[in-house]
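Ticket 4471: requesting a sanity check on a complex prediction with D-mannonic acid. Repro inputs:
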Amino acid sequence: MKRLSPDTLAALPAEVARPLYDRESQEVGIVHFGIGAFHRAHQAWYTDAAMNAGDRDWMITGVSLRSPGVARQMNPQGGLYTVAEQSADEAALRIVGSVRGVLVASEEPDAVIAAVAAPATRIVSLTVTEKGYCRRADATLDFDLAHSLSFYYFVTQGLLARAKAGLPGVTLLSCDNLADNGAKLESLMLQYLERHEPDLVPWFAANCTCPSTMIDRIVPATTDEDRAMVAKALGGLEDQACVVTEPFSQWVIEDRFAGARPRWEDVGAQLVSEVGPYETAKLRMLNGAHSLLAYCGLRAGHEYVHEAIADPDLRALAEQLMRQEAAPTITPAPNQDLDAYADALIARFANPSLNHRLIQIAMDGSQKVPQRWLETLKHNEQQGRTCPAIREGLAAWVHHLQGHNGPVDDPMADKLSRAVKSDNPMIALFGDGGLLTSRWRPQ
Ligand code: CS2
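Returned C-alpha cells:
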C-alpha cells in the first residue's frame, strides 16, 4: 500500500484539505518534546492552521525521548499526517503539514540539542504527560528521574549553546494537564539548572519565559480501525501517523512569550493574561469527570467513555461531580459559564463515534487524581460540604489499584498496589507520610 507523503499528496481525493503553504521553504520555529497523538491533533494542528492563514516559519521538529515508534510512522511520510475530526455522523479530514520530522533523543541526542539551539527556534514546547515532569510526591524535582534522557537535559544543553552563541532565549511552553503548568515548569527547570548548570540560571531568568496554557481536545489512542477508515478516505493511501479526534478544541494561552510566536489567536486560540480559571475548570470538571467515569465505568463493566456516560447512574455521578462539587470551587473568568460548560462536556463525552477507552484515562492515576479530585474535596470540606461523587470515584480508584481491571499502568504501580492492601487505603495513600502528597487529608 502506498504511504501518504509529499509525493503522493497530489493524488488525494479533492475533499481532503491539505497544507496551503510551501512546506519546504518554511523554517522550523518550534521544537516539541512528546509528539504523541495529542500534540498532533492539537498544537501542531493549530500551527498548521496558522500557516494556512498566512503565518510563516513555524514548522515543528518533534522529539520522542525514547521510543522510535512515532519517528518510524512520520518520517517516511515527510512529517505529513491526517487529523480526522469525528462527530456523531461524519468525519472531516485534513492533512496537517506543520511537522518537519521527528528526532528520537535516545538515538540522536546531538541533533535534539542542535534543534533547541538553532537560531530560528523560538519556542520549545512539551506534551510529556504528567509523569514526564519527574516530580517527587512533594512536587519537587526528582533528580534520579530527571537524568540524561529527560527533556530537562536536552533543553538545558540547547539553552547553554544559545547563551554561548549570544542567541535570544526561548519560550518554554507546557501543554500538559498540570495545574499552573507554566509556573511548575519554570520552578522545576530552575531546580534542574541550579543543580547542573548554576551559571545559566541568570540567563534563563532574563531570557526565557514559561507561560501557562490550558489545552483541551479529546484524542483517543489511534486504532487499526481508525487507520483503515483514514486509508479509505485518502483514496487508498496508508497513513501510519493519523489521529482521530472530536470536532471541539480549545487552547487558552498566557500571552507571555520570550520572543515571536505563531498567530494562533487568528485560528481559534485564546491569548489571555490569566489562564487560571480556564485551567482549573478544565482539570476539575472535564478531567475530574473523565477519571470518575474511567474508574466507576470500568468497575461497572464498561469499555468506552460514551458507554459510561449513557449509563444513567454514572451520568448522574458525573453531573454531581461537575455541577455540585467542582463548579462551586471555581471562580469563573468573565463570560465563563460553568453550567453551560458542564452541558457541553456531557455532550462531548457522549460522542458515539469516538472510541475513547476508559482504561486509557485510568492510567497514571497517581499523577492525575490529586489535581483532578483532591483540590475539589479540600475546598468543599472547608465549607462543610461533602463530595459523594468524588468519594465514590476514590473507592473505584482503590478497586482499580487492587487489580480488578487488569494490570495497573502507573509509574507508582507497585507502591500503590501495596498501599491499597493495607487496612486503610485512604490513609496509606493520602495520610501523613502517605504515598501521595496532597493538600487534602483524609479524616
Ligand atoms: C484524559 C485527558 O486521559 C486522560 O486522562 O482525561 O487526556 C483528556 O481527554 C484531555 O485532557 C481532554 O482535553
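Notes from triage: The longest strand covers residues 28-33. Leaving this open until the requester confirms.
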